[in-house]
Amino acid sequence: MIETTRRGSRRLTFLVLAAGAGFFAMLQSLITPVLPTIQHDLHTSQNTVTWVLTAYLLSASIFTPIVGRIGDMVGKERMLVASLLALALGCLLAAIAPNIGVLIIARVVQGMGGAVFPLSFGIIRDEFPAARVSSAVASISAIVAAGGGLGVVLAGPIVAVLGYRWLFWIPMAIVGLTALAAYRFVPESPVRAPGRINWLAAGLLSGWLVALLLPISQGAAWGWTSGRVLGLLALAAVLFVGWALAEVRSTNPLIDMRMMRLPGVWTTNLVALLYGGSMFAVYAFLPQFVQTPTSAGYGFGASISQAGLLMLPMLVAMFVAGLAAGRLESRFSAKAQLATGAAFNVVASAMLAVAHDSRLEIAIAGGLVGLGIGLAFASMANLIVANVPASQTGVATGMNANIRTIGGAIGAAVVSGVITAHPQASGLPREAGFTMGFLLLTAIALAAAVAALAVPSGRRARGRRASAATIVESELAAEFATMPSTR
Length: 487
Prior knowledge:
This protein has 487 residues and is mostly helical. The chain folds into 3 domains: 1-192, MFS general substrate transporter like domains (Growth Hormone, Chain: A, Up-down Bundle), CATH 1.20.1250; 198-253; 255-487, MFS general substrate transporter like domains (Growth Hormone, Chain: A). It has helices at 2-29, 35-41, 46-49, 51-74, 76-96, 100-111, 116-127, 130-161, 166-185, 199-222, 227-249, 257-260, 263-291, 304-310, 312-328, 334-354, 359-387, 393-419, 431-452, 458-481. Helix 13 packs parallel to helix 18. The radius of gyration is 22 Å and the shape is globular. It starts with a helix and ends in a 6-residue tail after the last helix. It comes from Micromonospora krabiensis. GO terms for molecular function: transmembrane transporter activity. Keywords: Membrane, Transmembrane, Transmembrane helix, Transport. It is a multi-pass membrane protein. This is Drug resistance transporter, EmrB/QacA subfamily.
């Protein structure tokens, strides 16, 4: 009877985590197809409306690892509730925003909800039996991946029927109920990391993330050789070095560099950087390609809704692959799944470069991308969870998500520069620009596949992971034992 109750509680916990993570992921892509609509409705410029995306990106990048670390320290359940409430509040502000300034602030508040990813993985590791952790983490990863794709699919129909503000009203209602369910049903995590928040490290981390991602996301508008872009990139390098030194020297690091140097962690993060570069660029430019008017000599002149439907094979494939990943891990290791996912991405990007003249070719390539994303999301999360101490699951998975986002921002910026380098007289990109862009994505995906082969695997790797994690845990425990009591 007790075990049956526990299983029911775990199912409810999983549903709450899935809803929170899925809707945050959806809000990442839900807005992208309707930026022109928002620009027109709020009477703003194209450069200004892009801050609706940039503000969300910067906010999520800052808060994901920091709140993940706080969750490791003070309790993952309470920080999950706080993250969901921030997400719901941001949706409310966005839904009633009278001008672009308020909408941008709302998106900053929404970005605070990015910590639902690492917190969810940490709660699963704390609450689920060891035999169920891989499949549960993979399933959440599948929902995260599918949520991002679902946003592209749903944006058009919702805007057409209800208006763009319902892109915020609907998530607000569901996320608000999810926060209530999390408070009521998700148990508080028994695993805690000792220590206090290192605010110097938090400030330096936030500083270099903003200084890096801001010029990358705004480089096309500001000019890649402008003083603002070059100055911010130089500042990012300086702040990164300062952050790394502060973390290494700190007795209470925000992100433990010993953990980040574990072979299974840094190699997986390298794959995340490269894979993010290819994955997010496909998300960004494949819908743009199919919406290009046929008068350009290519494209299909698809509407937002039609472009979303062409993305359906990608969405379905990534969801199915993600769900299958955890169940296959006993026979098909996380490393093998990660390399296979990257290989699918190589094939898909190469296919888009040479065969993009029919909707069927786009659908097949999209399906291959979806298979790759589903396997990669699940395997990366599982590799990080398996390689770090339980007390650092939140911050480690948060940094992995952040590194994937950084890769995505860099990849999207670079590919955008290639695609738009030599526009037609009409201002539309040339087909050759898209072809070169997809070839570049093929090269990035190939680099990710090669990097995946460097991820440790097998018994020796498990032994190294266990011993390294034990060392980190014991050192943290020793540091905690020498701290003065706060009572």
